């Protein structure tokens, strides 16, 4: 454990304990309701999903995907012509994003009229169909305020389309990195509120969903923000069902985004919920510093965010230099210290030493202020102006 993390152990644990009792009760109640739901059997079958691809095209048939998606509880099945009408024939002017498995368009569906995000999957390759199936099943079976809502899907001939709720403020990455001069940076409180919401999404996948789900692709571009900057996790195509019984990890080929993957996963292919915890630490560090996880435009020693930041995180005075300059010093010193402590715990090399996401949620919730209490919260937190950062001062904490 780093000296930075060990020196703040008592503070961290007292913060955790003050928030955990209510969280534990809520988590147990949610877990009980999910365990009683018959669709958990469908979720558990993820690990054994197999495909019978065409030998020439190596692609799953629409009938195979439809068979697995028959438990469509509330999700609407669209026709491809509906998707064309919603997006004006997938007009490039309506494109709002693009990822590894397809392009995303803003669209309008009817009955009732609703603005949505429409992701058209890349038709080339067997892998895209598998990711499509996994994402449909996860979003049908798992519901949480910090997971993006799936409105429906389309399986029509060789077309694979997912329809989500529309998130007005795009992805977190767009609000942290490379901001144009006329765009205001996120303030500290908004960043911490987003961090808490994203952590709650992971907590639900790890500690409430039964069986647990490993997200495997936690990064800023997969955290979407609604009109009030409430975060929701998206893009579940790489998600994996967690290990069974006494196993602590599953073995799988290494896929994900460079810079966010946990070291043990990259080196051995061992995947666990603690791999997601490491990725959360990287994203939290991005939110604190305003830097990319990997940035090849910077000097060589600064290109890897975690490698560059760790010596500063361990330094009792220099850690203040990690705050994003765009925050202009408007960060409570104790809050910065606490947030960096959480990041340091999540980024430990030994996965067994990384905290559960419920502990990260509890620690970060103490840093969030709001005009009114968050639903389910009774805690209050205040800051004083004389506690803000001064980049010229030398601190001893």
Supply the key terms.
single chain, alpha+beta, 12 helices, 13% strand, two-stranded antiparallel ribbon, six-stranded mixed beta sheet, Transferase(Phosphotransferase), domain 1, Phosphorylase Kinase, domain 1, 2 domains
Task: Give a short summary of the structure.
The chain contains twelve helices and twelve strands. It is α+β, with helices and mostly antiparallel strands and 397 residues long.
Give a written overview of the molecule.
- This protein has helices at about 5, 10-35, 40-45, 60-70, 80-85, 125-140, 190-210, 265-270, 275-290, 305-315, 335-345, 355-365; strands at about 75-80, 95-100, 100-110, 115-120, 150-155, 160-165, 215, 225, 230-235, 240, 250, 270.
- It has 2 domains: about 5-30 and about 170-385, Transferase(Phosphotransferase) domain 1 (Transferase(Phosphotransferase), domain 1); about 50-165, Phosphorylase Kinase, domain 1.
- With about 400 residues, the chain is an alpha+beta fold.
- About 35% of the residues lie in helices and about 15% in strands.
- The chain has a 6-stranded mixed β-sheet, with helices on both faces.
Structural domain tally: 2
DSSP E strands, number: 12
Mean pLDDT: 81
Q: Order of strands across the widest beta sheet?
A: 1-5-6-4-3-2
Tell me about the largest β-sheet: 6 strands, mixed
CATH-derived architecture of the largest domain: Orthogonal Bundle
- Pattern of helices and strands: HHHHEHEEEHEEHEEEEEHEHHHH
At the fourth level of CATH, the homologous superfamily of the largest domain is Transferase(Phosphotransferase) domain 1
Given as residue ranges, the uncertain stretches (5+ residues, pLDDT < 50) are 34-38, 50-59, 375-386, 390-397
> Any idea what the radius of gyration is?
21 Å
CATH fold descriptor of the largest domain = Transferase(Phosphotransferase), domain 1
CATH class of the largest domain: Mainly Alpha
Helix content: 25-40%
């Amino acid at each position: 454990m780093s000296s930075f993390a060990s020196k703040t152990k008592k503070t961290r644990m007292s913060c955790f304990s003050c928030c955990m009792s209510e969280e534990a009760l809520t988590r147990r109640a949610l877990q009980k309701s999910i365990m009683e739901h018959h669709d958990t059997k469908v979720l558990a079958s993820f690990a054994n999903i197999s495909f019978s691809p065409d030998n020439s095209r190596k692609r799953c048939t629409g009938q195979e995907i439809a068979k697995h998606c028959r438990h469509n509880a509330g999700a609407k099945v669209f026709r491809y012509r509906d998707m064309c009408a919603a997006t004006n024939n997938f007009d490039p002017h309506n494109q709002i994003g693009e990822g590894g498995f397809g392009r995303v368009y803003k669209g309008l569906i009817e009955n009732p009229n609703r603005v949505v995000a429409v992701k058209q999957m890349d038709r080339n390759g067997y892998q895209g169909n598998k990711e499509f199936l996994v994402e449909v099943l996860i979003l049908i079976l798992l519901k949480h305020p910090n997971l993006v809502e799936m409105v429906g899907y389309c399986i029509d001939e060789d077309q694979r389309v997912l329809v989500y709720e529309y998130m007005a403020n795009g992805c977190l990455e767009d609000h942290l990195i490379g901001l144009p001069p006329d765009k205001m940076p996120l303030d500290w409180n908004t960043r911490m509120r987003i961090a808490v919401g994203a952590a709650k999404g992971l907590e639900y996948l790890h500690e409430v969903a039964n069986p647990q789900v490993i997200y495997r692709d936690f990064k800023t571009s997969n955290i979407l923000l609604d009109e009030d900057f409430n975060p929701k996790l998206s893009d579940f195509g790489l998600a994996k069902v967690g290990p069974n019984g006494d196993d602590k990890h599953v073995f799988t080929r290494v896929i994900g985004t460079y810079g966010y993957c946990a070291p043990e996963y990259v080196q051995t292919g061992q995947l666990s919920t603690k791999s997601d915890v490491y990725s959360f630490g990287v994203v939290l560090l991005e939110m604190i510093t305003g830097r990319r996880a990997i940035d090849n435009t910077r000097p060589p020693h600064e290109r890897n965010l975690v490698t560059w930041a760790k010596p500063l995180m361990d330094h009792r005075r220099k850690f203040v230099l990690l705050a994003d300059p765009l925050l202009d010093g408007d960060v409570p010193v104790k809050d910065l210290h606490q947030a960096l402590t959480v990041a340091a715990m999540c980024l430990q090399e030994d996965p067994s030493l990384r905290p559960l996401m419920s502990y990260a949620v509890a620690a970060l919730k103490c840093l969030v202020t709001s005009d009114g209490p968050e639903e389910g919260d009774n805690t209050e937190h205040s800051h004083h102006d004389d506690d803000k950062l001064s980049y010229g001062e030398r601190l001893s904490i």
